[in-house]
Structure prediction request, 660 residues.
Amino acid sequence: IGPGDTPLSVLKRVFGYDAFRGDQAAVIDQVMAGGQAVVLMPTGGGKSLCYQVPALLRPGTGVVVSPLIALMEDQVEAVRQLGVRAAYLNSTQDAASRRQAEASLRAGQLDLLYVAPERLLTPGCLELLRSAPIALFAIDEAHCVSQWGHDFRPDYLGLGQLGQLWPEVPRLALTATATPATRQEIIDRLDLAAAKVFVSDFDRPNIFYRIEPKNQVKDQLLSFITSEHAGQTGIVYALARSTTETVAAYLADRGVTALAYHAGLSADERRRVQRRFLREDGVVVVATIAFGMGIDKPDVRFVAHIDLPKSVEGYYQETGRAGRDGEPAEAWMAYGLNDVVQLRRMIAESPADDLHRRLQTRLLDAMLALCETPGCRRQQLLAYFGQSMDTACGHCDTCQQPPQTWDGTIPAQKLLSTIVRLDRERHQRFGAGHLIDIVRGQQTARVAQYRHDQLTTFGLGADLSEPEWRAIVRQLLARGDLAILPGGHGVLGLTAASSAVLRGQTTVELRREVLIGRSRKTSRSAKTGAGATAAASSAPAATDLTAAEQERFERLRAWRAATAKDRGLPAYVVFHDSTLRALAQAEPRTIEELASISGIGAAKQAAYGEAVLAVLDPATTAVAEAEETVPAAEKSDAASAQGGTVEPAGQVDRPSQERG
Prediction:
């Protein structure tokens, strides 16, 4: 990088993109001028460019604070592939690697240094940073500073002191998930009152949102994967560690490449799962929320939830891990009564103070509102983050198959009346299953034991099925007309709103369950080239390729897979699919023509250019295919006769780690 370089020239030469997207240029200008910034961009929106570009242009090393210890090695390797000089410091390193990174920093040989927050705040690390000029501090995943958020990290609370220790160094706080309240907490706790706030569009139009009733959820999940996403990469989220293991085993037994991931696994096993997910195609990870934050895998085609997330923030961040490449992806969830009962009970029985319980209740209420809305899910989701959308998206389940609503006041009164009679007349309290048996008139052993067939409400709801009644109970809980009482196992009780329903002063509008069909329209166009460090891209979607282009694309994918395996890299670190599609369509013939392809900077052009051109060249391909038919012994004899050896097709030297 020379004195005449600009952010745009660095973007083109190092990262291979022609233009910035959204607020990227404005954020970079703010940092280049020495200012502070709070950056809110959706996953895949290009947050990392906001600190990578100014770190290359400003004197010194850019320090990136990240909680993603398990991913730092891959993050560093990805930018090294671009010719950026990078290293990391965290607890996974051996002493020799740590000393090498520290020496490189002191010698001024690093553009970027990734540091875990707990490492950064140690006296030794702070002293190390004082020994070298610092270009900027980038605090990634800044929502982790929020004590009431979905992903709190205590070590983030001390990061506010960076502004006191390095008052002249620009600081950025970056996150994909922050409500206005969380945003203010980030500003307060990180001492960023003087920062300029950049809030990007939260919409991810390439993601199709879909929520359906939970019924035999493992079978539902299997059907979803095999019928719509067979052979594709995906993430399945569950709340319990045991669930991740049983569901992963269930999927694996039925032909899906599925792996479990949770915090109870050994560090080596977690690294093994994560490595396979990043480096192999078609792997499905069934995980708790311990998995996924910061993973820069662009081709995750679906994210599924088989348990209800605790908050909209968590849901939005987790679903945002799908479709980072801007191509069509899906966020699918199966949601049922037991989810609501379980989470309500956890809040009611929490040892936390009343303030915390009230906050958790509000977060869950917002999540339930998203699940139960009869309107556009995307409008509801964006409204939570303070963003309005004038028209329905047309690209979610409720838009494509709008649910019917019905007046559920009388059934609600029957259920609530049953609770009143049990509580007042018999001083008894029960969960949803038993209450439904009573109103449906089911002569179960428990009903007989307690003589509940003598209640006046017994059998009054026999006209509705058990699934219909469970949907009613779930929606009454979501509306606040029912409550989960503390101290019991899902015991239901009345709320302040119940009396208005019982008196007929409130109409209970409920939605009928709609089983979403398997075919979906794609009325909203997908963004392309939306990888985490990508600027605007004109790469064609897979369906835009001709037969010849598709054949070239597949050859490039095969070459990329072999190259990535040989170098021990995830395939997307070599090239994203969008870059391969652009190559397949443009079919460049010279190294100079490669520079016009989005995603190919100078370092990748030098490292992979000749190999890519060889893959694209029909004559070279024909020779390679012909050689495949020659017996290995004959090829060996031919090579010996010429005094040389036969090089594997597509083999290239490793790229230089010097700056581009």
About this structure: Residues 204 and 428 are 48 Å apart (CA to CA).
